[in-house]
Amino acid sequence: MQFEQRMYARLKFLGLMAELYETAFEDFFHRLMCARYPDFLDVRTHGRLGDQGADGLALHERKLYACYAPQTVDVVQVKQKLMSDLAKALEKRSGQFDTFVFVHNDRRGMHPRIATLLSETDAGHPDVKFEQMGTRRLWYECMRLDQEAAEEVLGCQIPIQPVIHGVGMDDLAPLLKHLRDQRVAADPLMPLPDVEPGKLDFNRLHGDARQDLVRGMRHSHLVDAFYEGGIRAVEHDEVAQGFRLYYEQVRQEWTEPEDVLWQLEMYVLGNGSQQPRVQRAAWVILAHFFERCDIFDAPPPGWAGSGVEVSA
Known about the structure:
It is a single chain. The chain is of the alpha/beta class. It has two domains: 3-154, Restriction Endonuclease (3-Layer(aba) Sandwich), CATH 3.40.91; 170-291, no CATH class. The protein is built from 13 helices and five strands. A five-stranded mixed β-sheet has the order 1-2-3-4-5, sandwiched between helices. The longest helix has 24 residues, at 230-253. The relative contact order is 0.12.
């Protein structure tokens, strides 16, 4: 799909996440996972058997999925639901799974007390791995679908013509604001860091794109500071996964590195015009994930680059 189509799909996805609760959310989850994984079993409730603690099973990865999507999050009820599903799964489905995945519809991320609950549950059950699957991870699964499958899952046609303008990524909006504000207070005379040119050379990044990345690296430590600690660290990993997935898709469609960076810039900002300060903040984000190797490839051991110099 083109950038505009992906953004249209994301708007539809976010609209669904705002409307789907209880069984409707579970139905959406089943459609998505069945479209993504041939080995996924969409478990339904049956009479006195119930669902035996599982809303879905992944046969090959040996994962059991338990959905909880209330209209209003109540921590006490979430705890009761989680412990009930886990107890049923351990009793009724012993030997059928190694990982318990808690699937939820909280668009703001995981509640701190629920995150603590999952951590404590993980520590108390060393033989079982625990994961959570919220809005970000559900969207990343949608990103991997081809257009026909995405239309089936989202329940709408995705237009071919560009129709979306200036759609920023919601996950990155707080980070963009943080960088926009923090860069103002940064020392404008701070020297550019010493950048190892190998990866830049290996990925054929030269000219303006190269200089913009290197300048972004001057402030990339602000991204680490923003995501430092606790739940933010988990969010950092999820956002990085989104970058990796999108990069893999983009580079299949675009061969020139500068074009790939252009697509990644739109991933952060949307395809509408932005203020210069916001654009500079976006390049800090790109530089950060470039340094982490979430986007573009690291050169193999022993590879010798051209050593092209970049002026400040």
